[in-house]
Amino acid sequence: MLTVAGDIVGITLLSLLVCATSTLIATLIAVPVGVALGLREVGSQRLLRNILFTLYGLPPVLAGLLVFLLLSRSGPLGGLSLLYTPLGMVIAQVVVVTPIILGITMSVVATVERRVKETAFVLGADRWQLSVTVVRRGLAGIVTAVMVGFGRAISEVGAVFIVGGHIEGQTQVLTTTIITDISQADYGHAVSLGVILLVIAAIVYSFLYRLQERTMP
Amino acid sequence: MHFQFARRWLVVLVAAAVALVAISAYLSLPRAYVLLATTTSTRDTGLLPYLLPQFTAKTGIDVRYVAVGTGQALDLGRSGDVDVVMVHAPLLEEAFVAVGDGLCRNLIMYNRFVVVGPVADPAGVRSAANATDAFLRIHSTSARFESRADNSGTYNKEQEIWAATGLNPSTFGSWYEKTNQGMGQTLTIANERNAYTLSDDGTWYAREGSLPYLGLLYAQDEPVLQNQYSVIPVNPAAHPEVRSAQAVAFARWLVGDGQALIAAFTVNGHAIFTPNGAGAC
User: Nearest CA of chain B to the CA of A73: how many Å?
Assistant: First the structure.
């Protein structure tokens, strides 16, 4: 019943490539910034935090629209020719995923910091040693942040559709192909892609879960 | 005191839940309108928003529609999810009626397919002798071409023209790109990627203002480029729940009073659809 076509392998690999790349870049941006912001519990940071938490809920279609306008031939970065390319899709997903990882990291670090601060200072730790302790204790939470970020990336459809353009053999990913399969009444193909999506999620999450268990204090 | 406070909140929450369920239930009531499945072109050109209120004013029958690909439109009819379909893929339509999913088929009108592409026209499509020649020029220069590849009426026509050239699209190189999407999105992609594509003239005229890098390169009234639309009520013998009488009334109106309205319809000053109503309903 399930249609197994040669295109499925390519679509799956591109999905993995785009999501892994964007989650990795988002992690590299969001974790250091999130840790720095989480460690600093000052009133003046409240506005910045509010902005970040708004971005946390940034609808992916809106992120897609912004990146589309930016990368379009008539847009400010049109000269780079990144629209309808995998790299363009990565940029869109970084915009979606970064605030998520950032927001969770920040909350985790702030919570841990509040818990260990007194003890650390009583024990004679300086500011730097405190930071190291907080990050070490908060590692499980930071891994969770990355997990949630990847989950958003792999299940996301709006932004990659708009910025990727879903061009066959070039920018098709699992989620966008399911959408166009349905518009062409090719439900068997859509279901096989859905199963693959589910399997990827299961594998990645079980791996990250194990990692999280190991980092538990 | 504390208990009373909690009880007040509980009352508020239960009342809110009841209200929301009531709203959802109201929105789920059996529909009192005819549901039409059609292709995106009839919506994107503005034809349906123009025609439907006039039909409703005349007959009191409310028509609502979903605009999807031809494949899905016929599939919605096949499953009895809609009462009537309005599409443009004659071969698929004949099969739809032949197997008993469609009650009858009325021809409504036709518009034309056009070849659009980069304003600089590197393949020389402007001086093509006919549609087949235009496609041959694109092929021989390996100029980028966006194919909808979505089993739509437009895609079927594109394949028909390639067949007439004697070439097989499955052997084409990377210049032949497949979008798997509707006309509007495919035009946007062609505009961004400096590519040629086959479009219906209605969508082109509706969209050309936002496509600065594309030009109308080949637009002739050749029989092969005519795009015939039909309306087919879903067969009540296969799906007793469809609103058949109203669907048939709609199909008859389109080939009757609707014809003059269709002829008068323009997109940005261009008349698009040529009425040729005829049929069996």
Answer: 6
